[in-house]
Every structure is written in structure tokens, then in C-alpha cells.
Design goal:
heterodimer; A: about 425 residues; alpha+beta; five-stranded mixed beta sheet; 14 helices; about 10% strand; elongated; B: about 220 residues; alpha/beta; 10 helices; about 15% strand; globular
């Protein structure tokens, strides 16, 4: 474990000259990058040690911002944001100090090579160069991993990554050939290369199903994650709406009217969110009506101050126009009347046919005689009946003995439609 | 109607809701059993064979078919046991699912206690129970608002003019008695019309109905 003040060994992407090894080392050791680079340069003439070391570290040190890596390694409770998943990954990677092991192995290998060189074998030509080639090729191909991770975070896969993969494969292949075919003639070399490629092809063919399954599982996992985020959306919505309302209701449990009103408003909102497909504004009379009902339920109370529920049934739908606007305004007045003077339950029924729209508003109050209402009371006569009749509709108020009052409104749509068609022919 | 209370089995996965319903029912109705899942419901209904089952549409357990699955599993009992669906959902596919499986009515959970008792008694008497919302839904599904009205009695895919009138009045909040008074017919005739509409709802192959039923994977 490095001391807390020391940055972990990473190859930073910023401030690098070749592979970021010198910059990373400098950050890790707390010395100037220039000093490290000079050291590498000085070591290069000494049997190529500088280059070898550089390549080795290039291969073994992972890419990354040392500062970020240090942050990720910090205990979660010290970080500003708790990110358990990332923390878990870091822990798992930490369990085996791969870098240290690799360094040790490389140093041992270097020592063995020197010993063998003393004994008289040409180790460097026969072994070191091919192995270095192999490792470099593998590293090039494996750096793909970084690219894939970056791509998942929002980048895109370009031709560069493919080039990198192919180049890595070629370099590693050449390394393997040099390593294995040290005493072979060119003929056998070619032959064995063909055989090796054939075997690789066969293996790839056999392993293809597993590969495909892996890809499919990845797709499934992504779908699961999408579902997860959808669930998070729902949870967020429930939190913002239902839980808040429940908290409010608990706080005001001693006020039954208010509680009933809040519960009703919340129910309507949640229902709309769950079941309704939301029509575009200005295309649905039903949506306008729903808004009117919501407004009345939220702001008005019955004669005794109790919350009122309006049982709404809508059949069919049509686009709003001037006459349906008048109809809905009249409906609103009728509903207000029913809520204020009638007795619940208040029933509202709207039926939109091809030729006309009908609205019925019913309450269970004692009823009243519209003809007995004095002339100066504008409510029913003007705002409900007059509004509809002026637009060419019919309107009536029916009182039943013991059955409450029903306002019946009917608005023809024909005229408006014909007018719209005239307009269209004139334009055409 | 006789004075003996009607036995019902109450099926709902929310304990709180079951308690609320039990408290709101008056002495005309007697709860003889309760169940919270599809499997439990089938078991309890088979054991008690009540005249009426109050059935929630959304239930856990079984094959995920909810209330409709319970009804289908008890098809052989439908002569003596009738199902009344009780739901918070207004979604068309939920309504169609339970009605087509064989439920005799559909009421929403906002219904008051006395109204629910009336509905239970009505279903026990062999009649169908239509809430205003279900009536509106029927009118929508059969295209009645667009004037698509049957001319013959044996047509399954359209409502007759009289059935349409009855449905419209129920959707306007009228009780069966008020409907009868408005149309100058007897309550019995109203009940006959409503039962006929229920039958059409169950048997019709109208596109809307089959599509909604398909949404819950039953036809």
C-alpha cells in the first residue's frame, strides 16, 4: 500500500510524450518528469536498459489519471458521493497487486537472461526481442479494453480501435514466430504459420456459439439496466408525488376535508400518469374536461365544506373548437352549481359523436325550478343555458322529485365542420 | 328478496383494503372467506362455494393472470358462484379481461359501502352490475357514440338502440330504478338489457374487445 500522500502509479493521458510512463513515474515518485526522462535516455545506451524498462512499464502500468485513481481508492465514507459499485471494483482489483508481481517477474527474467548471457548463449537475439515483441503486441491489443470502457461511457468505436487490434495481433504473431521458429527454415515457417492460422480458425468456429451467447447476455444485461433505470424513474415519481402527499395527509390528519381533497387530487394525478396516454394539447375535448374537473375538485367544496368527487365518464373524443369551448364553459358552470347547491355524488357524462357533443351534469340535491329563479339571477340562465344556445346548441335543466337536478347540454358539430371544409376548399 | 345475508368471499391482496371493505358492508352481506393470492382464492372459493366472490383484478401468484385467472380456474362453479370484479384500475384491458373471463360486473374501489352491498345482492340475484364507468367503456368499445347501432337482436358486435339508451343513462349516474323510470320500462327489463350487454361484452368479437383481451393474453 502506498502512503496516502503518494499518488498511485498510472500513465496519465495529459502531459505524456510517448506512453506517459515517465510522466506517471514522476507523479508517483514526486520528482520532475524531465528528470525521469533524462534517466531513461541515459540508461538507453547501457545495453538498451532504458528502452526495455520503458516498454515494460508501458505494458504493465495501467492508463489513468493518478489523482482520480487516488480518489477512487479512498474509502467511500470519505468521498463526497457514495459510489458503492466503483468502490467494489477498486477493492477487487486491489486484491492482487498485479503490477508488483509483473515487475518482480520481469526483474527475475532480466537477471536470468544476464546470467545466461554470461554463460555464452545469445539470449537477447533469441529470446528477449521476440518476447518483447509479443508483450508489446499483446499490450496494444489489450489497450483495446480501455477503449471499450471509454466507449461505454459515451465515446464511439472508430477505425483506430480496429487498427490497434489488428496491429497488436500482427506484432504478437511475429513475436511468437521468432520465438518458436528460431532454428526453422523459411519453408517450414510458412507451413507452420498456415497450420497455426487454420487451427485458430477452427477454434474460433467452435467457440463462436459461446461468444454469441456472451454478446447476447451483454444485451440482456443492458436491457435489465434499462428496466432498472425505468424503475428508478417510477420510484422518483412516486417519491415526488405520492409520498409527499401521504406525508401532508399525515400532517393534516385532523382536517378531513383537506385530507379527502389531497387524496383525491393525488389519485387523479397518479391515475393519469399510470393509465392515460397524454394527448397533445389542443387536440382533445376529454383532456380539457379532465382539467376542468380537476380544478373544481381541487378548489371547491360542497355546501357543508366537504370535498366533492365528480364521477366523470367520457365516451369518444373530438378536437376542441369555439363551440366545444362554449360547451365546456357551460359545463364548468353547471358543475360549480352542482357542487355548491347540490348533494354528492355529482355525475358528469360527456359523449362526443361525429355530429354533436352531449354533456350531462347530475347531482342529488333537492333540485330547483329554473323558471322560479328570479330574472336578476344570471347563473343558470346566462352562463349555462344561454352560452350553449347562442352557439346553436340546446340546453335544459331537469329536476326530478327526490332525484336531484340534471343539466343537459347538446352542441352540434356539423356547422363548424362544414365551415372548416369550406375553408379547405377555398385554400385548395 | 329474502332476509338471509348473502355469503361472499373477498379476494384482494391488500389486507388494509379487505378490512375496509368488510367494515363498509352492512348486515345484508356476510364475509365467509378471504384470500390474497390467485392460488389462495381458487382454494377458498372451491372450499366455500359462495354465491358471490368480490374479486380484485390485480392479484399476485398463479400464472400472473390475476382475477381473470381465478375465474377461469373456477369455470365449473359459474352456475352457483358469481364473480363481481372490484378494481382501482380504469384500464380497458383489465375490464375486458375479467368480464370476458366470466365476471358478472365491474365496480371501482371508490364505490360506497351501501352501493357495494346493492351490487353484491344484484349479482347474487343473477343480474349484471354496471358502474357508470363500465357503461361508458361499453359505449366506447361498441362505437355507440358514433351511432353504430344494431338492427337485429342477435347481433353480438353492436348494441341495440335500447341497450345503448340504458348504457347512456347508467353512464350518466342513473340507478337501475331511475333508468326504468326515465325510459318507462320495468326494472326487470332494465336488468334484462344490462345482462344482454354483458353477454355481448363477453362474446363479441369486436376488434376493440379482442385487442384489449389480447393485451392481457386471453381470448
Amino acid at each position: 500500500m502506498e502512503s496516502p500522500s503518494r499518488l498511485p502509479l498510472r500513465r496519465p493521458e495529459r502531459g505524456r510524450v510517448v506512453g506517459g510512463v515517465a510522466a506517471g513515474l514522476a507523479l508517483h515518485l514526486g520528482v520532475s518528469a524531465r528528470l525521469v526522462r533524462v534517466l531513461f535516455a541515459l540508461l538507453t545506451p547501457v545495453g538498451g536498459v532504458g528502452v526495455a524498462l520503458y516498454v515494460f512499464w508501458w505494458v504493465t502500468i495501467p492508463v489513468g489519471d493518478p489523482a482520480v485513481a487516488a480518489g477512487a481508492g479512498r474509502p467511500a465514507e470519505l468521498s463526497r458521493l457514495h459510489r458503492p459499485l466503483e468502490h467494489d471494483t477498486v477493492q477487487r482489483l486491489r486484491r492482487l497487486p498485479w503490477t508488483e508481481i509483473a515487475v518482480g517477474v520481469a526483474l527475475l527474467a532480466g537477471a536470468a537472461a544476464m546470467l545466461l548471457a554470461r554463460a555464452g548463449t545469445d539470449v537477447v537475439g533469441n529470446w528477449v526481442v521476440p518476447v518483447l515483441l509479443l508483450v508489446a503486441g499483446a499490450a496494444l491489443a489489450w489497450s483495446q479494453l480501455d477503449a471499450v470502457q471509454r466507449e461505454r461511457r459515451g465515446g464511439s468505436r472508430g477505425p483506430v480501435s480496429v487498427l490497434r487490434l489488428v496491429g497488436g495481433l500482427v506484432i504478437a504473431g511475429v513475436g511468437v514466430l521468432l520465438l518458436v521458429g528460431q532454428e526453422a527454415t523459411p519453408g517450414t515457417l510458412v507451413q507452420s504459420t498456415v497450420a497455426a492460422v487454420a487451427v485458430l480458425g477452427g477454434v474460433a468456429l467452435v467457440l463462436a456459439p459461446w461468444w454469441l451467447r456472451l454478446v447476447r447476455e451483454l444485451g440482456d444485461e443492458r436491457a435489465a439496466r434499462a428496466r432498472e433505470s425505468e424503475r428508478a424513474d417510477i420510484a422518483a415519481h412516486l417519491h415526488d408525488s405520492v409520498l409527499q402527499t401521504l406525508a401532508l395527509i399525515r400532517a393534516r390528519a385532523d382536517d378531513p376535508t383537506e385530507v379527502a381533497r389531497m387524496a383525491r387530487a393525488q389519485e387523479r394525478e397518479l391515475r393519469a400518469w399510470l393509465y392515460d396516454d397524454r394527448p397533445a394539447p389542443g387536440t382533445s375535448v376529454a383532456a380539457v374536461l379532465a382539467a376542468i374537473v380537476a380544478e373544481i375538485e381541487d378548489t371547491r367544496t360542497g355546501p357543508d365544506g366537504e370535498a366533492v368527487t365528480i364521477e366523470t365518464v367520457v365516451v369518444g373524443d373530438t378536437e376542441p373548437d369555439a363551440s366545444t369551448d362554449a360547451l365546456l364553459q357551460a359545463t364548468r358552470e353547471a358543475l360549480l352549481n352542482a357542487v355548491r347547491h347540490g348533494r354528492p355524488p355529482v355525475s358528469l357524462y360527456l359523449e362526443a359523436g361525429p355530429d354533436e357533443v352531449e354533456v350531462f351534469v347530475r347531482d342529488r340535491g333537492d333540485g330547483f325550478d329554473p323558471d322560479a329563479v328570479p330574472d336578476d339571477r344570471f347563473g343558470v340562465r346566462e352562463s349555462i343555458l344561454g352560452r350553449v344556445r347562442r352557439r346553436g346548441g340546446t340546453a335544459s335543466v331537469v329536476c326530478k322529485d327526490g332525484g336531484g337536478t340534471e343539466v343537459r347540454l347538446r352542441m352540434p358539430l356539423v356547422r363548424e365542420r362544414a365551415a372548416a371544409e369550406d375553408e379547405r376548399t377555398m385554400q385548395g | 328478496m329474502n332476509d338471509a345475508p348473502v355469503d361472499v368471499v373477498l379476494v384482494d391482496d391488500h389486507l388494509m383494503f379487505r378490512a375496509g371493505v368488510k367494515a363498509s358492508l352492512d348486515d345484508r352481506v356476510h364475509v365467509v372467506g378471504e384470500a390474497a393470492t390467485v392460488d389462495e382464492a381458487i382454494q377458498v372459493v372451491r372450499a366455500t362455494q359462495p354465491p358471490v366472490v368480490l374479486l380484485d383484478v390485480h392479484l399476485p401468484g398463479g400464472d400472473g393472470g390475476g382475477g381473470a385467472e381465478v375465474i377461469r380456474a373456477c369455470t365449473d362453479l359459474l352456475g352457483g358462484t358469481r364473480f363481481l370484479a372490484l378494481s382501482v384500475s380504469d384500464a380497458a384491458e383489465d375490464v375486458v379481461a375479467v368480464i370476458r373471463a366470466g365476471a358478472r360486473g365491474y365496480v371501482t374501489k371508490a364505490i360506497s359501502g351501501p352501493d357495494l352491498c346493492d351490487a353484491v345482492l344484484r349479482v347474487a340475484g343473477g343480474d349484471a352490475v354496471f358502474s357508470p364507468r363500465l357503461a361508458g367503456f361499453v359505449l366506447d368499445a361498441f362505437g355507440a357514440a358514433a351511432g353504430d347501432v344494431a338492427t337485429g337482436d342477435d347481433e353480438l358486435d353492436r348494441l341495440s338502440a335500447r341497450e345503448r339508451e340504458v348504457m347512456r343513462l347508467i353512464a350518466r349516474g342513473y340507478s337501475y330504478r331511475e333508468v326504468a323510470g326515465e325510459l318507462f320500462i320495468s326494472i326487470k327489463t332494465v336488468e334484462t338489457h344490462v345482462s344482454a350487454v354483458l353477454r355481448k361484452l363477453q362474446l363479441s368479437s369486436r376488434h376493440e374487445l379482442t385487442r384489449w383481451a389480447a393485451a392481457r393474453r386471453l381470448l
